[in-house]
Structure formats: C-alpha cells, structure tokens
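Design request, tokens follow.
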C-alpha cells in the first residue's frame, strides 16, 4: 500500500523514478511466466491469485469472470494428463502508473494420462493481457488467448 501511494505521489509531481518502467516490465513478465507455471501444475489457488478479484480469463469460446470462477476452472480440470505452456516473446507496455498491457506468445503442448508423447502441439497462440497495480502488486485484470495455429485431428 505504501509503495503504491509513493508511486502515485511521485508520478503526480512528475518525478517518475527511473526504475519504475523496469519494475512494471519485471512484475508483469513474472505474472506471464507464473501463469504458465501454476497452470501446468493445476495449482488453482496460486493460479487464481495472479488475477484481480474481478478479472476475466478467455480461452477459446469460454470466459470466466472473477477470481473465484478462475480458480474453480482449474479445480474442475481433468488432471490425469499433462500440459505445458512455453511462453516466449513477451512484450509489456506501461500505460500509466496503474495500468499496463501485454502480448505474449505461447506454444501449448498436451499429452494423455500415462503418456509423454504427442503428435504435435495443441496450439500456438497469443495471450493479450491487461495488468493493474493493486495494493498486492501487479495483477492480471483481463487475459485472452487468441489462437494463431492449432493441431487438427486427421
């Protein structure tokens, strides 16, 4: 809370700390990589805590609104198989002292229970994010996965 107040105060006087931009980049990039890490481990609580209370998460044609529904989504998944999100090309754009946006590329692999082989990737896509600085640090307020390439069954 104090860090947030000092940041807003310094920005309102035009005294933007040089480290501010690097803090935004670092913190938001960590959210992107933590998303992949906790999602791949089906860690619903840590995964959901990356989001604001009123966040939205859109994957395919489905959208989950609110941290509790995002957590419930992960809790309700079939955990017998494996999934890996490989994140790359992460671009973060600070908007103002409380907001940032970002795009990151993801290659997502899945395998069935008891198997470690795949016939191809599940999807290559882009996550489009909105980030907000909260009293608990930077959080994801909106995340949408947009498919670029997908694996089609033959």
């Amino acid at each position: 809370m104090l860090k947030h107040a000092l940041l807003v105060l310094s920005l309102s006087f035009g005294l933007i700390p040089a480290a501010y931009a690097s803090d935004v980049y670092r913190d938001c990039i960590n959210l992107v990589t933590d998303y992949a890490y906790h999602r791949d481990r089906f860690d619903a609580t840590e995964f959901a805590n990356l989001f604001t209370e009123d966040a939205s998460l859109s994957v395919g044609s489905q959208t989950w609104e609110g941290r509790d529904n995002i957590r419930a989504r992960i809790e309700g998944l079939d955990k017998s198989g494996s999934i890996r999100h490989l994140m790359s090309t992460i671009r973060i754009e600070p908007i103002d002292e409380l907001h940032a946006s970002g795009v990151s590329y993801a290659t997502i692999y899945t395998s069935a229970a008891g198997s470690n082989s795949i016939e191809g990737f599940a999807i290559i896509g882009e996550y489009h994010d909105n980030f907000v600085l909260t009293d608990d640090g930077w959080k994801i307020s909106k995340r949408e996965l947009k498919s670029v390439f997908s694996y089609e069954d033959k």
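Comment from the thread starter after seeing the answer: thanks! The first strand starts at residue 51 and ends at 59.
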